[in-house]
Amino acid sequence: MTDFWLESGYKLLDKTSDGHLAVTDDFLRAYLMRPEMEPVEESCDVERRLHAQLLKNPKVKIMPADIAAMADADIQENYQVMIGFRDHLVASGSLENGYLNFFKNKSSLKIPPLFINQLVQVILRNVLDDTLYPLWARCSEILFRDQTISVRDETVMAADADTVALHLSSDAPASLGVNKIENEGNSREIELDVLTEQNAEMYWERSDKYDTAVDLRVRGQANIAFCRVLEKWVNHFYKVPVKIQPLEEINEDKWIWHIGLDTEASALLNDLYNGKTVVAERNQRLISLFRMEIRDETLISPNIAGRPIYLGMAMTTDNLLRLKPQNLLMNLPLAEGA
Prior knowledge:
This protein is an alpha+beta fold.
């Protein structure tokens, strides 16, 4: 298969015996080489020495006093975040465990959302390492990059929010392909290639550009591909096989369990479950529903066994989809010890 997401850092990592990603010195060095961490002309000698020491041995023990000796308070904060992030990953044994532990233990550790999204991307790169389906890879972007949603007739177009913003705010030509993506409230339109199973091979050579769109209509190819990604995401962490299918609507008067895949969907599904009135405009922002079944009922909490779990995605009032893939992992009603 063709390689993809070359900038994710996947090639810098090793594998553990269970197929997870082991933290390496080279992976940590990539963070040390970020603009926020590299010394500049105004950097003090303490910062320069500490940065050189970390480049030589990225796992060397750093004491709070070492960071406090730096002259710049902002740089001190950058190093506190970076060293805390590093120590958390190393102590967890793998990137997957580090990601889970951050949410399971409700850590007070300050980790920027950017770092969390980068973890999701490189873990997904591991999850999809053997995939032959570029549409799956593109749909995986939804888990770690905000999407601008454009709804017209029966289509639910999802395009990378940063890409849309860049082309709406710059002097660059707006046309990128053959299919229009509208930005409500803005008179400009941009054109992006919309991936389908028929043309998806183009994704491989453009995977780091984030410049394609997908149609998330209920029974569309992309929505089904997205289901496959979610199934692999759950199974990779928990070794629990699940089946996820797109859904038009929930027909149960009182369903047992639901999971919002983002903040908007969580609040909306909670209100619907509790019988609260939801205005039409808010209800229309629920762009996708899914039905999930855990095939091995011994792995699920006894009071949920045999019943479906409903999942939802909703866009914000400004048409953004901001997924929190940890929601799916943290809120599964698994049996104790599963």
